[in-house]
Amino acid sequence: MSASKMPTPQPAERVGAAPRNKVVDRPADEPDFRTLFHAWLESHRASLIDSLQRLARQPIGSFFTCLVMAVALSLPMGLSLLLDNVERLGGSWQRAAQISLFLEMSAGERDGQALREQIAAMDDVAEAEWISREQALEEFQQLSGLGQALKELPENPLPGVVLVTPKEVDKAKLEALRQRLAELPRVEQAQLDLVWVERLTAILKLGDRFVFGLSLLLILALLLVIGNTIRLHIENRRAEIEVIKLVGGTDGYVRRPFLYMGALYGFGAGVFAWLLLAFGLDWLNDAVVRLSGLYGSDFALGGVPSSDGLSLLLGAVLLGYIGAWLAVARHLNELAPR
Questions:
Q1: 203: closest CA among 287, 303, 290, 82?
Q2: Residue 265 CB: number of other CB atoms within 10 A?
Q3: φ, ψ dihedrals at 269, nearest 5°
Q4: Cα 130 to Cα 101: distance, rounded to the nearest angstrom
Q5: Cα(269)–Cα(112) distance, rounded to whole angstroms?
Q6: Helix (H, G, I), strand (E, B) or coil at 247
Q7: Which end of the chain, N or C, is more open, meaning fewer C-beta atoms within 10 Å of its C-beta?
Q8: 3-class secondary-structure state, position 286
């Protein structure tokens, strides 16, 4: 009895071979990029709304937290704006560093005008002004209060003057310019007084360093304030966070609402700081205008520039975000489910 012949298996029937005309597709439950992106946006939207609602439930505490941060933010910015106004009050550095050329007594109007035109054509000179002997005497009579006594003099004792305004305020270049101008014909003396300019520059540099150091200290204080505030929110939601991590919530999902909360605190503090600076400078400006009016000046404090205000707002939001990140990163390991 012969053994029955077994049929030869076809290639499609061999073990491990894929059936013919069958396309292997990805699993039906795998989401596409559009779905993932929509879920990511929805998660951020839910975190933002949740943070806003939690802040709204504690309006007094949120208000005072933002107010404390606003005061800390407005101090260095306000000092910086005041220093800018002081620098503007000092006037143009070029005009403050004018070189006075006293001409010989025999120099007349034509000599003075010719010398002024020659000096004004120089490359490192921004402006040259001629003051005749008669104009100098008249101005001296008005400023000194000795008008009647000066009229009794037999002749005008003041020489003609050319006021030279340099293009650049540099001590070495100014001294070189003064020496070159002193060698011009009909010039008897060239005088340059930079002492008060150097003093004012030193005071402003000292103020800039003080503002920089104060800013660093207040930034550290702000990080501590926002970190402590976020830590309290974390402690209030400890049980909720432990449940979220127990069911598989990621650290990013747990961290997100607190980051939004820190950014919102920073945004509120930035808005309050901008308002404090605007109203504070406006309130101080009334006294400054009255004081400058007594000295015959129209000086007034400038307001908060829009660029500085936006930088303040952006910096406040960034500080709130960083403070919240540091606080959550510190306590995230402690939030493991028990």
A1: 82
A2: 28
A3: -65, -40
A4: 10
A5: 60
A6: coil
A7: N
A8: helix
Q: What's the rounded Cα separation, in Å, for the pair 189 and 228?
A: 67
What are the phi and psi torsion angles at 312 (to 5°)?
A: -60, -45
Query: Which H or E element spans position 99?
Result: strand 99-103
CA dist., res. 323 & res. 19, Å (int)? 59
Q: Is the dihedral of CA 315, 317, 320, 323 positive or negative?
A: negative
Q: CB within 8 A of 21, min separation 6: which ones?
A: none
What is the distance between the alpha carbons of residues 48 and 46, in angstroms, rounded to a whole number?
5
**For residue 167, which phi and psi values (nearest 5 degrees)?**
-80, -30
Alpha-carbon distances of 115 from 110, 184, 258, rounded to whole Å:
9, 8, 72
> In this structure, are strands 187-192 and 161-166 parallel, antiparallel, or unpaired?
unpaired
What is this structure's pTM? Answer: 0.63
Structure tokens at 209: 């360093």
Nearest to 271 by CA among 82, 78, 69: 69
